[in-house]
Amino acid sequence: MILEADVTLEGYGTPNEKPIPIMAHPPEITSDNTLDQWLDAVLASRKGIKLDFKSLASVGHSLDLLREKNSSGGINRPVWLNADILRGPNVPGFMPQVNGSRFLELIQEKFPDVTLSPGWMVAYAPPLFTETYSRTMVEDMYNMVKNVPQQVTFPVHALLVQRGWQHISWLLSQSPRFSLTLWQGSTHPNVSDLLFIRDNSHPARVYYDIYEPTLSEFKQAARQQGRVWRFYPGGNLMNFLNPANSSDLDLPSTVIQPSSLDVSWFTVTDRTSLLAQLLDGASGMLVVPVTSNRNQHGVPVVESSEGSSEVFTLQDVLQMLGHRADAPWGLYLRICAQQLLEACLNLLHSAYSRGELYRPIWIGMESLQRTQDIKEFASTVERLFPYVTLVFKELNWPPSAPQTVTGLSLSQRPALHLNTAALPKGQETLSFVVDLMDRYDLIVEDDKINSAGVLADLKQLITQGKRRANTNIYILNNQP
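The chain above was modelled as a monomer; its predicted structure follows.
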């Protein structure tokens, strides 16, 4: 257990201000308990220490006290130091925050043997102020702490994390030193939200500063056997198919997951074919070519069912998947036209809002060649349903999408869809394909004609090469 308390200076901001750290929460500036006394009491217990600083003025004096206590008797327990060093969700620009650079400098100078807890100022007041963490917020935080040597735990508002998970998870993935501390205000988070975070992160990298009875309810739900895994749709497919891999953020960068080469792919043609896959106990990726219903323009349907007596809509597909939440299949939508993209994303958003879409979702367009089309595709996904992997299909070699995608600052996991017919021949030229895996998942579609030699060379390069552990290569063999 960790004891947490706010620290300020006696008389802070008044003519009577003294260089004596006291235990008080703003706007209070007086207290009958100094930090010196509080530390003595905590050090006589077996509890950890967390100090929350609301201003920079008290930081240096408090660090001096910590150093003094450590020199005299030793602080043989965790010490966490927290300050809100950046403006976060729903906080106006005029609100002052603690100077983050100076806060971190003081810790390095005076008492570096701590866990850092740098946070964002957050306001949450539904229904008006409910925005979540943005990519800019987490990138600014990363730039503040990327070079510090300490363990870093980021305090995040529990009610806002799930909707901003594509950004929060990016921050968490940047270093094995990073963790999250979920905190709440007066409104209790949903147990479902807490389970989502637990299911999409390593348990040792999330701390819970959550009140009762929610905390006990969450623990009980987490231990429940056979519960549905609330997988983040934009997450790593290999973590979904092999849950033991979900801790791979802590693995060395040279670790390879060759099992991605063996993932099963199944092209959905109609209701019967999908039901058979959901019932047979297999796992893999469902490929759904999506076109428009000729009788109801703009309604997304499975392409091969368009001319049959029973049209199979994308909504039908999602409903069937929602009824079989335990079936370990991801979903790859190959959309034929930009005009259908919004309708598909709206259907995905509705299913996700109902808690029926906890599986990997990949979105790709079949004919994105122009830079403007790629940008429009990415921005539409970001606006309507950003919790996906974005797939960029390449018809030619060398691929043109990486140059455009690099400048987009995507919040989604990106993948390149290549065809063996367009790939260069020979290991020397194929090594460029492997280099792409530093930034993308790769889907190599087997054309079944001249692919044997290319695939053999590619697999050998991957087996021998070194790459990031959280990118994968998949062989799409078009098996209906």
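The radius of gyration is 26 Å.
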